[in-house]
Write a structure and sequence with these properties.
alpha/beta; single chain; 5-stranded parallel beta sheet; globular; about 160 residues
Amino acid sequence: MEKQKVYIETSVISYLTARPSRDIIVAGQQQTTTDWWDNSRIFFDCYISDFVTLEVTKGDVTAALQRLDSIKDIDVLRINDNITELADVYFRLLNIPEKSKIDAFHLAFAVWYNIDFLVTWNCKHIANAKNIQKVNNYNNVNNIWIPVFCTPQELMEV
């Protein structure tokens, strides 16, 4: 049986490798991420893009190396003009700020490559009900793939 496909957005990698937070909610999300990574990720074919690689290299060098190490065995999806065009549509549709434009590319990769799940902790620009509805409506009207946008918690094996 073929595994379902998951696009892993940068926030998941950040939560996976970050020092434990003192914020109880963030700490819980970090633990959930680690549990998903260690126990449930194996049930999926996982993918990232060069944008994830670019984002995880930012910041503290030691932390960046740890983030890079965590994604070293994950298949990287390649960009093309269709993804760039679709990202521009999502960028405008969702009114994503310029500094967060990469979020539109994460969405476009998941759509273009017919990824089953886009897993993220980014509930501001990606996994929130209003933006999901906008993307779903746009994709339905244009007859294009609709992935499920979710957190690692929603992909835990039960």
